[in-house]
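[step 3/7] inverse_fold.run input=structure_tokens len=217
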């Protein structure tokens, strides 16, 4: 491999931000082994990561050809260290105003968008995901799609957010029915739906602030 393409040399010259996910894993591994280069091993680790962090275990890592106990521990330690550091420095979502700072684009969108914010047990933001764009209804917004990301993130709670491009933020009967359905699904899976926020052109509506989330059983 040319020196300029080697992940560690590339990191030294240009910094970690320019590296792809695959290159970052390869840089962490350092080298391959006889008959298997470092990128082949990194590719298998990336495939495991794509299934969600809950799949990143000592046993599963060691099923990859080229990853022994030492490398598996090294990878898990790096992931756990990053997780703890990011949680310390991360964004905390306490109320509806904190949510709005994460979705400023919704007020000007001309299409309806549905997002899910996943949170840990201490209310730190893990991930913001756009799940749907277009007219929303119960048949399109299925609990499977809503909670898949939350399960992969090992989230304790989620917050639902969508916009009303037409203007008013008042919830429709469809919005209320959808929220009720997702709150019930979350309770079955042990993931709380803390709020559903609807963003209008000039204002917003919070189910939690209006005391509606607790009544949706």
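[step 3/7] decode complete -> sequence:
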């Amino acid at each position: 491999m040319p020196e300029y393409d080697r992940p560690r040399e590339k990191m030294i010259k240009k910094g970690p931000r320019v590296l792809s996910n695959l290159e970052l894993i390869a840089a962490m591994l350092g080298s391959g082994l006889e008959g298997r280069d470092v990128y082949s091993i990194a590719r298998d680790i990336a495939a495991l990561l794509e299934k969600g962090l809950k799949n990143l275990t000592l046993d599963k890592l060691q099923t990859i050809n080229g990853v022994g106990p030492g490398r598996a521990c090294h990878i898990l330690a790096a992931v756990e260290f990053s997780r703890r550091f990011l949680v310390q420095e991360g964004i905390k979502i306490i109320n509806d105003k904190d949510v709005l700072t994460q979705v400023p684009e919704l007020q000007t969108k001309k299409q309806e968008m549905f997002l899910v914010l996943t949170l840990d047990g201490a209310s730190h933001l893990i991930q913001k995901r756009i799940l749907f764009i277009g007219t929303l209804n119960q048949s399109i917004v299925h609990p499977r799609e809503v909670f898949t990301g939350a399960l992969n993130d090992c989230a304790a709670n989620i917050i639902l957010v969508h916009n009303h491009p037409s203007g008013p933020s008042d919830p429709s009967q469809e919005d209320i029915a959808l929220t009720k359905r997702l709150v019930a699904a979350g309770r079955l899976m042990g993931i709380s739906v803390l709020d559903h926020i609807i963003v209008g052109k000039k204002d917003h509506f919070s189910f939690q602030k209006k005391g509606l989330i607790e009544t949706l059983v």
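[step 4/7] annotate
The beta strands are 113-119, 125-133, 157-163, 192-199, 204-206.
The chain has a mean pLDDT of 84.
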